[in-house]
Every structure is written in C-alpha cells, then in structure tokens.
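Q: Could you fold this chain for me?
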Amino acid sequence: MITPGVIIPQRPCAALAFASRQPASSHLSYYAAGQERRYTIGGWPTWSVSQAREKARELRRLIEDGGDPLADRIAEREAPTVRQLAERYIEEHLPRKRSAQDDRGMLRRWILPALGNKKVAALRPADVEALHAKITKSGAPIRANRVVGLLSTMLSFAVRWEYVERNVARRAVQHNPEIKRKRYLSPAEISRLSAALAECPSQRAADAIRLLMLTGARRAEVCAARWEQFDLAAGTWTKPGATTKQKTDHRVPLSAPALQLLNAMGPKPKGYLFPGHSSGAGYLNIRGTWESAREAAGLGDIRLHDLRHSFASILVSAGASLPLIGALLGHSNPAATARYSHLYLDPLRAATERVGAIVTGGDSAEIVTVRKGS
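A: Sure. Below is the predicted structure, expressed as structure tokens.
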C-alpha cells in the first residue's frame, strides 16, 4: 500500500538562511515497492510554498496510480546519451562493418557535435531533420543521406538494447536525390594513373591501388588482405566473408599482371599485404596516396571506388556476360551488376553486324568503327 505524505517547510527567517547559506527544500515522502522514497521537489524561493504543495498533489496522484516519480527521475538522469550509444555501437558493432572508418568519420564530424550530449530517449524526428538540413546546406547532400542512415542504424540498436521504444530517425527526412555515377576510366586515363603511381613516395600504397585496378576488388578487401588468403601457385585469392559485402568467402582468379605484382612485393608467410606504418594500425591507409596520384594524373572527379567500375567496364568491352562479371566482383544481387548493361553497345553492335552479314548472304562481316565526320 502506498502512503504518500508531504513535508513542506515554512519560509525560513533571514537569519537562519544567512547562517546556513542553504535554501530550505520541499520534499515528498512516500512508499513504493515496499521501500520509503524521498522526492525533492525544490528549494525556496525558486519554489513557493503554494507551488510546492501543488506539485506534491500532482505527485501523489501519480503515486496512487502506481507510479514512482523518484525512480523515474533516476532513470532519466542515468539514461544514455547519443555519445554513450555511439561508444557502445563502436565497440560492439563497428568492428564487423566494412565501412567502419567511414562511420567513425561521420560520427566525429557530424553526429556527435550536434547530438552527442542529447539523451537518446529525448531525440525527436525534428532533431534528425535539422541535422540532415545542416549537412545538406554545407554542400554535401549525399553525405547528409549517409549520416541519417548511420544514425538510424544506431537507433535500431538502441531499440534492441532497450534504450528507446522506437527509431525516430526512420523515415524522419526526405532523402536528397541521388544519381548513380557512371564514371569509368578511359585507356588514356588508366595510362596516366599508372604513370602517377610510379612516382608516388609510398610504393606500398601505390601497390594497393594497382591491385584494386587489376582485381576490381573493394578498397576494404584489398586493405585488409592477408598473405594467407592468396595461393600464388594456383593463381587465386580467397577473400574471407568478414571482408566481403556478401558476408561469404569469395574465391577469384588472379590475372598474370596481378600475380606479377604480388610476387614482386615478396610474399610473406602471414600478415597483411599492406600493413600500417604506425604500431597498432592493422593496415595501410591509402587515401592520401590516392588523392596525390589522382591529382597528378588529372583525373578530376574520379573516386577510388570508380576503379572497380572501370574493371567491370573493361570486362563488358571484352564481351564478358553480366553473370560472369557479377561473379568476379562478388555481387550477390544481379541488380548490382545490371548497372553495367548499358556498356554493351559495342559487343551488341558486333553481334548484329554478324547477323546482318549472314542474312544478306555472307558468312562474316568486318566490324568498322564509325567515327563522327567519317
């Protein structure tokens, strides 16, 4: 049985207030779950006697309905902040993500400065919308979408960990439109990039970029590659599921130039192909070398990931089928490979020319490239 009671002090005399230098406080004493509670309402003069009594009446009604205002206050005070959620997310989930470095950057640059000190339970869709608008206004509309996506992922874990009951970031904003990039390196650009890589101070990082060009692998796959994953005699690379997007082992053949590159690096019995420079760094950060080589080669808006797209475009030009390209790239969804179907124009033209030759009575046809003005 809950037995509420209120202790309301009278206004202290001036001498007493001066002597103690402590304002009198109003308290509500009550029992909940078999234990006595003492809830501090507030001190005079911030709370007048009449205000304290009115607050006590509100609390008594809550207690009579089975509530426990002191427990609620403690729970609110100890509720995790977005920063604490981020720390747990980093510790328990981030090590399994390929995009761990990118996630850390978004947390450090955007999420924690804006929301780090805010209680997770106090987040509202308006907070998410404001952050998205701020990043968009800074000139990074795609990054704004990615930040909200990361925040939504973190809040999904917050629901699982019972920090909150719902994910306020889900469908909180209208994402900025994104157009799939269709940027591929031309043979001339590949030649300029190769020349720029030869001049890079860090040839270890340059070799990582060369391996990206020769295999079409993802950056995380190459940077985390270990010597024990390679069978140079059989000419294969078995990528472990921990580094692949499809979360399964992916075995691919290696071309002669790729094997030549690996042999020139000097195979080690174990360890990373591209270990980090500093102690504690698992593998090498190649971003700086890439930016320098890209600028030296005059590649403009080419991204590191576009090397993977360029690998696929070369396969298409050679007449490789989409399923074959998907198998080499490690696509688990055929739709991911379908983006390269528009590059089949030259192989399709060659096929139609052969059909035309047969229909008109010939058995072969010479394929002539038609140039503008000819």
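A (continued): Residues 82-160 form one domain.
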